Amino acid sequence: MEPELFSQPVGGGGRLYESNTVEGLAEQFGIDPKDLADAVSKYNDAVDEATETTSSLLPVKTGKAFKLDTPPFVGTPIVNGAAMSFGGILLNKNAQALDLDGVPIPGLYAAGRVTGGLFANGYVGDEAHGAAVGEAGTVGKIAADRIAQL
Ligand SMILES: Cc1cc2nc3c(=O)[nH]c(=O)nc-3n(C[C@H](O)[C@H](O)[C@H](O)COP(=O)(O)OP(=O)(O)OC[C@H]3O[C@@H](n4cnc5c(N)ncnc54)[C@H](O)[C@@H]3O)c2cc1C
User: Fold this and answer.
1) Domain assignment of residue 118, yes or no
2) Does residue 47 sit in the same domain as residue 103?
3) What pTM was estimated for this model as a whole?
4) Cβ(113) to ligand 1 under 6 A?
5) Residue 111: pLDDT band by 50, 70, 90 thresholds?
6) DSSP letter string over 55-69?
7) Is residue 61 lining ligand 1, measured as CB closer than 6 Å?
8) Per-residue pLDDT for 40 more than 80?
9) Range of the domain at 141
10) Which of 24, 45, 75 is the last residue of a domain?
């Protein structure tokens, strides 16, 4: 393990667990050691099958995959986060929320994560870094300007 890889999250208040066995790591998390060992074994088998990705797993890992077979094993608790909606509230150019017939809902404006049009056909982040934050700020400003005129 490279300690400097983990110094920032731990310094920021994160927790890091370490064990020389997968089962030992599971015990520190309070999860079933056999379940985690089986999951890691399945993952390692999938890496063997595919040189670059673990395409036989669901969800598919699309980046490079490396086997988890060399101690120490290190883990940290994580939570899910919603980055953006892939089909959320539809807007017109004035940032007004639209109903199912495409008619503006009086007094309702939206911007950012809850809106859907920009990413409805897929994530554009690979080609446009900051697209979600940019959309939130830009459309939020449009909405705020319109609301200020009411
Ligand atoms: C891990 C991760 C990585 C990301 N990476 C990128 C990236 O590289 N580029 C990019 O463009 N986008 C990225 N995004 C997406 C981007 O962060 C969001 O799409 C964007 O921040 C959405 O902006 P928003 O204003 O809709 O919501 P938010 O930024 O979540 O703002 C909502 C705010 O409302 C506050 N709030 C919630 N409830 C209440 C309440 N009841 N009263 C008052 N305030 C409240 C919250 O505290 C929060 O501050 C990422 C998102 C995640 C989770």
Assistant:
1) yes
2) no
3) 0.70
4) yes
5) very high
6) TTSSSPB-S------
7) no
8) yes
9) 96-148
10) 75
